[in-house]
Amino acid sequence: MSSSLTPEHAVAFVRSNLWPGAYAYATGKKFENVYIGWGLKYTGEGYSPPVPPPPQREYPSGPEITEDGDPSVEEEQDLKDALEEQEAAKEEDEEEEDEDEDD
Prior knowledge:
- By secondary structure, this protein is an alpha+beta fold.
- It is about 30% helix and about 15% strand.
- The longest helix has 30 residues, at about 75-100.
- The chain is rod-shaped, with a radius of gyration of 42 Å.
């Protein structure tokens, strides 16, 4: 009871031992239930979550996965010209081999 001096205005309340945070209170013939808590039953000791797994090792760094800077326009053009020269040289060699086979 909240007050023994004026019992007509007194409020009685009870608390659950199984569900901490669950309360019921009443005054006269009116009552209500309230829950203020984490939604966990009483276990005797506080909850401590399991330890997380250790962090994973970083991915090994190597030349096949290392980022390179972008080439300039001039470097791209030089590479393109060099590839075209190589292709032209291959075509000339193939034409010479075809001529040698025909003879």
